[in-house]
Amino acid sequence: MRILLFSDLESQYTENFIKQALLPYGWEIVLISLFIPDENKLETFKTKFADSAIEYDTLFDKKPVRNVGKIKKVHTLLKNCRSIKKRARYLYDRYKPDVVSLQFISLYKLVFAKHIYKKCRVICSFWGSDILRGNKFLKKYIYPKYLKKTDV
Fold it and tell me: What rounded mean pLDDT belongs to the chain?
């Protein structure tokens, strides 16, 4: 079974989840990170999992933009959402996952999942901080819509 794990490469949770929940079963893991991480963090990750067959890819081929105003964020989000559709199809066709696991829910990941729902099983993991961080629009309209479509 091939699992496409959509999570942050730099997160300690991701590392523990891979070690304790996925590797013992011998599943093929493809880790998709939202943006390109720092080189030293990527090398550290690759050294920790050198013996296991974990592939790595990113949704966006650029570094994240930090500390920008709301209008810039909205513009960037809309521009990126258009390219996510193409990237989602590319990543699905390249890796052919049986399951897609979305960790630490964000709007980008939900847009990504929208384009692969019918092709494979989708697991959404909501954590307390995901729900607390979201604004009213996300909590009321977006999250419930995607939760209805997920398999688990």
Answer: 77
